[in-house]
Amino acid sequence: MKIGCIQMNVGFGKVDENFERAEQLIREAASKGAELVVLPEMWNTGYALEKLGELADKDGARSKAFLQGLSSELGIHIVGGSVATEKDEKFYNTMYVYNNEGKLVSEYSKVHLFRLMNEDKFLESGNAMNRFALGEVEAGGVICYDIRFPEWLRAHALAGANVLFVSAQWPTPRIDHWKTLLQARAIENQCFVIAVNRISRKVENFNGQSMIIEPWGEVIWTGSETEELAIVDVDFSKVQEVRSRIPVYDDRRPTLYAGVVEK
């Protein structure tokens, strides 16, 4: 499957400009043969958390109409990164996933809120897993800080995910953590990790370096430090090949793990 990774420059609080740029890049990806495209985190607003009252997408209406329309028109799957949404007077960091028929197949709000960027002061956390299928591809999706919680991504893999999509706004000072964590999540779960970060030229400090990692831990693509659209061919059959080489899932001892008391 040809994957379009949209490592876009997200304007701080510039909602209309961000929608316009996202559409341009999605259409370009489709024209270049992408069958599935992935967007970064909070691409509609950037981290303008103090302005969510005026910027957040009410009930996700604009974002859902936008993603549904493009997925249906272009006949592509869209892992819609995440957008700032407002529901019942509360704000969320929400991922919408549409299949190539324009059907909403998953809606997920970020479970682990990042206190270093004050997410916990402005956002509500989600409480549900993000497992979905796009055609024959069994997948899971998480958002940024979620990748620091290996048990959360393992839960998706145990539920049948063969690929984990990660949408992020991962800052430059911790970019080495990003690379190591993503590779570790791919190796330990023996699955593909397709991770899309954003870049920023002004207010915020993000430098891309999105990644696609195979189940054996091999990095098959790394993004640059500028805005970029990459089309990468991914062979999802490699998941079963790797899992047959080292039978990690067969050798697990979950009853023992369940007996460990969390501190």
From TrEMBL:
Coiled coil: none annotated. Keywords: Hydrolase. Residues 1-236 form the CN hydrolase domain. GO terms for molecular function: hydrolase activity. Gene3D superfamilies: Carbon-nitrogen hydrolase. The keyword Transmembrane helix does not apply. CDD domains: nitrilase_5. It holds the Pfam family CN_hydrolase. Belongs to the carbon-nitrogen hydrolase superfamily. NIT1/NIT2 family. This is Carbon-nitrogen family hydrolase. It comes from Ureibacillus aquaedulcis. The lineage of its organism: Bacteria, Bacillati, Bacillota, Bacilli, Bacillales.
